[in-house]
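Justification of resources, computational component.

The compute hours requested in this renewal are based largely on the per-chain cost of generating structure records like the one below. Each record pairs the submitted sequence with a full structure-token output. That output is archived, and it is also reused by downstream analysis tasks.
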Amino acid sequence: MIALREIPEQQTVPEVESSNGPENAADLSRAPRTGLRLMVVILIGLALVAIYANVQKVRRDKIERVTITPVPTATSAAASPGR
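The structure output for this chain reads:
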């Protein structure tokens, strides 16, 4: 037979007052200045790399030139190496 378990009643936990208070809660949620500066430096670096990549993409036609030269036709002696 299957035994049914009794479900205990939910107990509520009393709220505990924080010793920090509302004025210190705002200070704890702020990011440190050095971290923010580091993020700004990284964003500026990524922006400069993106600008450089786009400039190089625009200049690619001036920098790279492709020249196609036709291969000379093969002679009959070079075509049959078995002789």
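The mean pLDDT is 78. Residues 33-63 form the longest helix (31 residues).
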